[in-house]
Structure formats: structure tokens, C-alpha cells
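User: New here, any thoughts?
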Amino acid sequence: MPRWLYTVLLTLAFPFVFLRLWLRGRASPAYRLRWRERLGRAPSDASMLTRPIWLHAVSLGETLAARPLVEAIREHYPDVPLLITTMTPTGSAQVRALWGDDNADFAHVYAPYDFPWAVRRFLAHWQPRALVIMETELWPNTLVAARARGIPVMLANARLSERSARGYERAGLLGAELMRQLTVVAAQDEATAERFCLLGVPSNQVVRTGSVKFDLAVPEHLHDDAARWRVAWSLLQRSVWVAASTHAGEDEIVLAAHRAILQTHPEALLILVPRHPERFDAVAKLISNEGLQAVRRSSHELVGANTQVLLADSMGELLLWLAMAKVAFVGGSLLAPGGGHNALEPLAVGVSTLTGPHYTNFQSINDTLIAAGALTVVSSAAELAQAVLARFDDPELLQRQRAAGAAVMAANQGAVGRQLELLAPWLGEGA
């Protein structure tokens, strides 16, 4: 399909794109806000940046992945302005939670939809010096318009599954044109690097850098903060586990596992962290229907001796919950066609970690972790309960998995430095 036909089809879909936003707004009202930004218009109160680096992170996962790279840029190039865009309210909320409000050297807006006129308006206003796209979010008109203005494009922390590569192959002319717009691809692994080369990106523009997710820096105060919360909530003698980034259908499985755990560990506390804020109320209702005693984080109530579940309906606190736990389960992975979520966050905090069998989004990383004994796969409520109980009851098993995770993390660090080096030509004063 040529790009002109893609643009025609996208234009015909224009009203349906915004109808979808309106319908999603029934569950998450934030989808009904800031539509002007999606059409390439900057908000009236946005900071005026001078030739910023434009970093695009689609949603929550990509924003978290971008954190080490963003913080490295801010540390080593403090005079370079940063414009960070997302596509979803969860990604937007995470940007605000991590880096605060707009200021003289930082701004955050939604990225424009891929309508040519919206992209041109966006680029004319912000005039970025370079575009850094996290992982794999390639929009044809955006990339072509950027390169037409002489803006280099780096695909950072790139990952490309075999299935996605076949999709770009099937796109024919459109897929080939996309690949021609990429200035440099910083691939997470060798398989990703090979796939981009096969799709037409010159081999000298594809660099295997590893994943920046291995470079996650745990805040120095994190474990002290977690210790204070454990004291405040009287958790020192309780067995705590976290179910992170759960999706619809998984919460029932997690709660069934927790019921089984409570049979032998009645003091156990589950911290349940749904992936998407629009599901918070539904999950709260589900917990209530299960007859479990729960506290919502948003209520600011204290976790009491009778509390069996803490519903973490907040943003930006996942690392704190992980630091309070012995075991973590990473969601988005129990039900097909789930692609899984980042298992490196709990490992970086030092938590024994479990995942479901569906983790195609992190295939290479998870396979490495599993082979090293740092990650365990569970497929059902019974297996999840059994794995959590084994770690509650066997401190040596807990420690072995923590040590294995730390070893894998240490062996694979350095991707941020390598990707920062690739960005260096566009970060200097003369860029």
C-alpha cells in the first residue's frame, strides 16, 4: 500500500478516531480532554522550548522504559530542552509523575495523530532538532514530515517481534518507506537488529545496544520509604506480594490465588496494581464481590490488621509497592494474546519475580531471565499461589532468585550509555 492511500484511508477514518476517544472517555474521562494537542496544536500554557529533542513514548510502558535515557540526557546535557509526547492518558500521567510540570527546558503534550496537516503544524511549532521514538511506534506521515524538515530519527530501545516484522513486510511500499526514514536503530537484541536489516534499514544504521530497562536506577530513598510504610501499616510480620500491571480477566485469577494463599498464610497482604486507571473502580467492585477486606490507596486509609488487599489505584508508586513485597507477579501475561510487561522493575528492586506464559513483548529479555533462574513462569491461579507460597516459606529460594536477577541485571547494563552516544551528534551546542 502506498502512503497516499494510507493517508486517504486515515482521513476517511477521522470522525471515527475521535468517536473512539469519546467512547473510551466513558470509562476514563481523560480521553475526552486535550483533543487540540492530538491535532498538532500546542496548549496555550505550554513552555516555549528552543529546538528541543522530541522523545515519543506511546503509553505507560514506553514512558517507564524512557526514564533512564531521559534522566541521562538531563544529567549530561542539562541545557538541551526536552519535549516528551505520549498517546494515552496513562502515559501522560506517568510523564507528569516522573518529571513534573512544564518549565523552561521541558514540556509534555500528546503527539499529533498521523494526519499530514496535524504533523506539519506540530513540527512548525516545536521545531525539534531530533526525534527519538521509544521501542516501535512508527507513523508514516510523521516520519516522512520529520525527515523532510531535516530532523534525524532514532528508534531507541527498539524491539521488533517476528510477527511485527511480517506485518511491515506485508505493508509493501509503505513498510519500505517507513524503514528509509530511520536514521539509526538502537536494537535491544540481535534478533531485532537482524529483522530491521532484513526490512531494508542499512546495517551500518542498526546498532545492538541492549535494553535501557536493565539500567533502571532505583531511587536511593526507596527502601527507606518502604521500611517506613511497613512500620506505619504494621507489615513487619506479614507476608506481602504484589500483582503488578494486571489486565482485565487476570484480576480474578490473582484474587483466586490470594484466597488460596490466605488458607495457610492468613496474614498475607496482596497489593493489586491494575495496569489501566479506567479499571480501578471495576477492580474495587470485583474485590468486594469476592468478600475480601480491601483498602484503596486513593482513600488514604491505613492498611489494618484485617486488610487482605491493598488496591493500588495511584500512579507512579509501583516501585514503592515492589520494595515492600517479597514476591511480585507481572501481569499482562496470563491470558492470550497478552504480551507481558517489564519484569526488570521488580528484579531491580530485589524482588523474587513471576510472570505468565504470554510475554512476546519481552521475549528475549524474559528468556534470558528464565534461563538464569531469575524469573518463574506460572499459568494458573493454582500455580501462582503455589509459587508465591514457596517463596514465603523458603527464604533460600527467595534469595537465590533475587541473586540471579541481580546478576542478570548487572551483566546487561550499559545500554543507556550506548544509546546516549548514538544521540550525541544531535545533543551538542551546534546541533
Q: What stands out?
A: Residues 60-76 form the longest helix (17 residues). Residues 425 and 431 are 7 Å apart (CA to CA). The longest strand covers residues 240-246.
